[in-house]
Amino acid sequence: MQATKQSSRLYLILAVLMAGAFVAVLNSTLLNIALPSIMTSFNIEANTAQWLTTGYMLVNGIMIPTSAFLVQKFSTRQLFLTAMGLFSIGTIVAGQAELFPILLGSRMLQASGSAIMMPLLMNVLLNGFPIEKRGQAMGIFGLVITFAPAIGPTLSGWVLEHYEWRMLFHIVTPISLLVLVIGFFLLKKETVTSSLRLDQLSLVLSSFGFGGLLYGFSSAGSAGWGSLTVIGALAIGVISLTSFIIRQFRLDEPMLEFRIFKYPMFALSQGISMVLNMSMFSAMILMPIYVQTIRGISPFHSGLLMLPGALVMAFMSPITGRLFDRFGARILAMIGLSLTVLTTFFFSRLTADTAYSFLVIMYTLRFLGISMVMMPVMTNGLNHIPQHLTPHGTALNNTLSQVSGAIGSGLLVTVMTSRTADYAKELTANATPGTNPQTIITQSMVEGINDTFFIATLLALLALGLSFFIKKRDVTQEIVQVEPAREKKYA
What we know:
It comes from Exiguobacterium undae. It holds the Pfam family MFS_1. The chain crosses the membrane at residues 12-35, 55-72, 79-97, 109-126, 138-159, 165-186, 223-246, 267-291, 297-315, 327-348, 354-375, 452-470. This protein folds into two domains: 1-195, MFS general substrate transporter like domains (Growth Hormone, Chain: A, Up-down Bundle); 256-474, Up-down Bundle (Growth Hormone, Chain: A). Helix content is 79%, strand content 0%. It has helices spanning 2-30, 35-42, 46-49, 51-63, 67-73, 76-96, 100-128, 134-162, 167-186, 200-223, 228-250, 264-294, 299-327, 329-347, 356-371, 374-383, 390-430, 437-467, 484-487.
């Protein structure tokens, strides 16, 4: 009876946390399609408007590394109410903002709440379920983090066709407030006793380290790799991050425990996830450019193209979780990555008139493949570390996802831009008199996008090669401790 009551309470907590996480993740992609409308509304340039997404990513990169400390220091209720409170305030202010700096500030406030929410949910999932049932639980988590951002463009496109961009915030506001109120009454007060203290120098080094890398790679796509801003940000990021890591090895209570990379399967899972993240961003960034700029398709129909893939991921995530519990991550990752490699390669063969139906089918199959990889690989890696190190594992996983996403975005946009310019020069030099300049521009961009998708194919192929080394943890055996003397401090 007591066990049933505890199980019901766990599912209740997870339902509340997942509702909050869904709203937070959905919000992260809603604004992308709205940037042109915001530029017109505030009379600003694209580089300025881009800060609404870059700034969001920066705050996440700075906040997420502290989540391991926060999860151990404060209760689930305290962190949830703080996260949803910050997110709700940011959403309300953003919907009323008459000046761009206020909109940007409120957007960053949203990000600070979102950055706390995701690691908190992962930590509750991993600690609440035994290893043999984590796949099913993480499959539901996968539904949240993949379905929400996937439907974002479709929802945003529909809203922008009927209302102004502020409606994107007005829609989210009542939902976030409702989740906040439900959490306030349903989550019980807990007493958390912890002597952990946040090392202030580590926080500063982490902020400059991850923040510098994220800003540098995010800016490289538009400013170019040779920009002093990009080079300076990356240099600050590398130096600060190196200093941060060295300091963590010297602290008795590190902000992030990098020693967990000594567990081979955790390190392998992070490697596969980072490479796949970089490849995954190719379709998320390049497909809207191809569909809207080259094909002239509306933002709504551009977002609609991605909806079947989102529905497939929503349908497959719980199923993939159950399959993971039964068969492990290796076979799922091999099948999923094979499908990802194949569909990404097909995207490297686009033309100026590739059928819309072909794009929908390939995009959907690609998401099917990715749904079989992301959660199983991540869960398998986290299963191989001791439970008391789970907050550090989830914090590192979320941080590296942000960093690899920024690297992928910067790299792929740079490849597309440079290759498009090269093709434009070549086609202009070989053009016959009377050739329409617009034809050259269109063909150059198509070829540039194709080359970029080919790079993404190679990245997915690398992830496929790494997947052959995945091993399932034997739940009948204890994990070999990395450093027993140190780990007593966490007990």
